[in-house]
Design brief:
Helix content of chain B: 40-55%
Strand content of chain A: 15-25%
Structural class of chain A: alpha/beta
Strand order of the largest sheet of chain B: 5-4-3-2-1-9-8-7-6
Helix content of chain A: 40-55%
Subunit structure (chain B): Tetramer of two alpha and two beta chains.
Strand content of chain B: 15-25%
Distance between the termini of chain B: 24 Å
Distance between the termini of chain A: 46 Å
CATH topology of chain B: TIM Barrel
Protein name (chain B): Tryptophan synthase alpha chain
Largest interface: A-B, 38 and 41 residues
Radius of gyration of chain A: 19 Å
Number of domains of chain A: 2
CATH superfamily of chain B: Aldolase class I
CATH class of chain B: Alpha Beta
Structural class of chain B: alpha/beta
Number of domains of chain B: 1
Number of helices of chain B: 11
CATH class of the largest domain in chain A: Alpha Beta
CATH architecture of the largest domain in chain A: 3-Layer(aba) Sandwich
Shape of chain B: globular
InterPro entries (chain B): Aldolase_TIM (IPR013785), RibuloseP-bd_barrel (IPR011060), Trp_synthase_suA (IPR002028)
CATH architecture of chain B: Alpha-Beta Barrel
Family (chain B): Belongs to the TrpA family.
Radius of gyration of chain B: 17 Å
Active site (chain B): 48, 59
Shape of chain A: globular
Number of strands of chain B: 9
Order of helices and strands of chain B: HEHEHHEHHEHEEHEHEEHH
Oligomer: heterodimer
Amino acid sequence: MKLKKKIPLIDQHNKNGFWGNKFGGNFIPETLKKPIEDLTELFEKLRYDKKFLKERDYYFKNYIGSPTSFIKLQNLSGHLGGAQIYAKMVSEANGGAHKIYNATVHCLIAKKAGKKYVVGDTGAGYAGKMLSMAAKKFGLKCKIFMGAKDIKRQKPNVDAMKKNGAEVVPVYSGSQTLVDAVSECMRYWVSNCDNTHMCVGSTVGPNIFVKICGWSTAQISRELKIQIQSEFKRMPKKIKLINCVGGGSSAYGFWSEFIDYDKKQIELIGVEAGGPKNSNLHAAPLTNGAKLGILHGAAAYVCQNNEGQINDTASISAGLDYPGVSPIHCFLKDTKRARYTSATDEGALNAYKLVTKLEKINPSLEPSHAFAEAIKIAPKLSNDTIIIVNSCGDAKKDRDILKERLGKIN
Amino acid sequence: MSLINLAFKKVKTEKRPALLTYTVAGDNTKKKSLEILKSIAKYADICEIGFPHNTPIADGGQIQSSAYRALKNGIKIKDVFSIVKDFKKSKQSKPVILMGYYNMIYQYGENNFINICKKVGVDGLIVVDLPYPENKEFAKKCKKKGISFIQLVSPTTSPSRMKKIIKDSHDMVYYISMLSTTGGKLKVSPKKILERYSKIKKLNKNKNIVIGFGITEKTIASLRKADGLVVGSALCKEISNSIKKRQNPVTNVTNIVLNLRKKIA
């Protein structure tokens, strides 16, 4: 299994949609075959269409607010010693997280496809919030599927979705989290694929959804590359790009432009949700050696039992609370281009506390997992090492959880 | 001739469609589901048995409930096989089709899974999320062992794709009546469904093509021109109701199957 150079990772799959002949594919009900083929054809046309690219770039700049800033976390670096820590503040994007890139592109595609309705799944609520925002912007009717448990714990985003005119459909099946929301969203699409466009919230699902999402979030690393060059005048010799990984959409977007670099120069570190300390529950299939399985239309490492039933997961961050992971991250892991580890709920909370105490930023619980790893490794590294954390979401949505777990919040 | 083909041949002489039932193995217990199967087999021509999965992406609420109930009661794949085996002991000539999601087969190992299917007497397999052409290899393996791999076609299946699927199909093809998960309300008129159905049938008159999704006691008679009709969610729903009302699901489900059979006789 080998990575190819100079070809975007999202395009390095075989004719059946498998990365490394193993991950991804299209394990879908017959009814979705045609809609997915149509979407694939349309996307392949649009992504090389100059007019469409111009439109995308226009909205990325004027609607999303690209580029988001790249800042040095001077106090945190000084406090920890060792590596210099930077953050890419993707949370500055309109709506407060990286999910807006995927949502905007999906709505643009839905318009081109002549669809009037968009549906999407959401865990942390950001994917849903952004899709509802973009749908409103582009005049599409929107329905968002969300686990009942997540509706409770991510209320601010639920309120935002409703305010944007979206219908939020609570999902009571299974564990009532993201995994069930994705299933229910797919079921809805199976029943309404003639007039409805589906937006998968991360780089998971049938091949084309992995591609569209990755293609959209790749904007993050395009910006970052320019920002690094302008900050350091050339590409530094030792960079570590740290990103949380649930489905893997922000991590792919953050790394996309840097995958071709030698890993000795630019190391890619993905941080999964280790779940509550001293519990066996987690949402870290890559870290904990989960078996290959089929979930939501794709083959990937999946937390599951011997029988192929999908495991319950647990994480303080609704956005990472998912038993599967993107096929492209499985590919990055098996080719050893990226390294994956996990942070516990407590680790993420501590990281949140330290970062917000020292810096004027407010990362959500998802990137707090990435900060936990940065805080862990920075003191051991030389001070010419550059750590960059993708602060891919802001903590407004987490205010109830933070209040409960930490008392007073910043 | 396979049991599935024999069943279709028999109903043709009786000038009626085949009645196919779908129930979830282990719903609500291993023992009960076997009792239900044995009892409904008196009126059903082919028994579809679902192996329960906890993330079924194409099933509606009724079948989901059945599957969750079975899993909650500890049903494992080996139990599904033992239900089939026990069923076949008393109803040797009744064709059994197992239906489920690919991850379970994948975890079990394709060859292993097919071998055990053969051993316990499974006649056909439906894998909901393994569409054409991804299913070619698996379908070949099934055929080699004399197990019919049953393909699905839907209203969204393009004509060129339809031709290929029919050509590659084994004893039976399953036509999904409408865009829906299982158990949806019939949102297309029976006339329209039969119109599409006859187009598919024209591609190869020798193939047995059944219609499923949205079929209940109310709708079944209007579709009786088909080679076969599948009723699933209505039965799962009755199991749920019976449990809720503390009644015996065996009698209640059997009554429904008997009524369905009368309506197409």
